[in-house]
Amino acid sequence: MLQILPKFKIILLLILLYGCSTVYKIGREFDFNNVSKIKIGTTTQKEIINFFGQPLRIGIANGNEVYFYSSEIITFNQDKTVKREGNSLLIEFDENGIVKNYYLNIPGKETILFGYLIHKIEMQNKINQVQ
Q1: For residue 80, what are the domain limits?
Q2: Structural domain count of the chain
Q3: Cα–Cα distance list, 68 to 76, 105, 109, 122 (Å)
Q4: Confidence (pTM)
């Protein structure tokens, strides 16, 4: 009986582990609410760092410097489904370190050319006010 007990514990542990999900955390949290503070053609790299902290990655896209922020949790479930939560943000700067555009991705949604859309609406509102 004593020899069966350790084997039983191992089998029970394996059964419990088999039923668990695997969870991966990618990136680090950033204040998603500060996205509304980004103004194309105005916001500087220093302001972006004040809003979101140091970027997860810095790179080059289309010859311009970009900052990448991401905070995602990906869960691989036993039933082979995958659940993604969180968001990511890519900010593109011009040669003077001013925001040229930004892209917001919310898992499960299409990537949004968010900055361009907001900028276009703001410019149209300014035009309408002048007229």
Answers
A1: 21-130
A2: 1
A3: 24, 11, 18, 24
A4: 0.63
